[in-house]
Amino acid sequence: MGSTCGHEHPSHAPGADAVARSVAAAESRCQAEGDRMTAPRRRVLELLLAAGEPVKAYDLIARFGEDGQAAKPPTVYRALEFLERKGLAHRIASISAYVACTGDGAQAHAAAFLICDCCGATEEVAAPLGDAFSRAADGAGYALERTTIEGHGRCPNCRPAAAA
Q1: Number of other CB atoms surrounding residue 160 within 10 Å
Q2: d(C-alpha 42, C-alpha 48), whole Å
Q3: CA atoms of 4 and 147, how far apart (whole Å)
Q4: C-alpha to C-alpha distances, 162 to 4, 95, 156, 158, 159, nearest whole angstrom
Q5: Is 147 helix (H, G, I), strand (E, B) or coil?
Q6: Residues 6+ apart with CB under 8 A from 140
Q7: Residue 126 has what DSSP assignment?
Q8: Residue-wise pLDDT tens digits, 3-56
Q9: What residues pair up with 150 in beta bridges, in sequence order?
Q10: Rounded CA gap, 42 and 24, in Å?
Q11: Strand boundaries in 1-69, DSSP class E
Q12: What is the number of helices (H) and of strands (E) in the chain?
């Protein structure tokens, strides 16, 4: 994500070994749950993990082919839908981007994101009241499939600039 106020944030991109470990864990989990981690699903997850920050779908489409070839949009969107359903990725609606889940790997969990409107830094944090919200949905007869909370503001690196 680009900076809108000139401040850059430190990269949260993991190294190749960490990406490989995360992909292997995701593949094991999918297999244990009776799902397949197809090559397109694996590639999209690798791209999300390697980025270490939210990525727009069209950027994933452009980066998809290791030989520089773009993917067909349905291929990437189907992979993203699967990764979201499995709790391996989240869609951040307010910025129309996707991010690899940094949570504990639970399939159904409430995700909360802190998003810096200055530099674009995004951090997944424990969702406040996630269990209470799920209980309220249960009480109303809803079966939640996913919950995403988004908070916008300034990260620690950009806050001093905002006050000046």
Answers
A1: 10
A2: 10
A3: 27
A4: 12, 21, 10, 6, 5
A5: strand
A6: none
A7: E
A8: 456 656 666 677 888 899 999 999 999 999 999 999 999 999 999 999 988 999
A9: 113
A10: 9
A11: none
A12: 6, 5
Q: CB–CB of 147/91 below 8 Å?
A: no
Q: How far is CA 134 from CA 62, 79, 110, in A?
A: 37, 26, 9
In angstroms, the CA 118 to CA 161 distance is 9
Residue 52 backbone zone (phi > 0: left; psi -120 to 50: alpha; other: beta)? left
Return d(Cα 37, Cα 149) in angstroms, integer.
Answer: 27
Q: pTM above 0.90? A: no
- Whole-Å CA distances, 77 to 59, 72, 91, 136, 162: 12, 9, 11, 31, 36
Q: Which residue has the tokens 């069209």?
A: 58
With tokens 């359903």, the residue in question is 85
How many whole angstroms from its chain centre is CA 154?
A: 19
d(CA 160, CA 164): 6
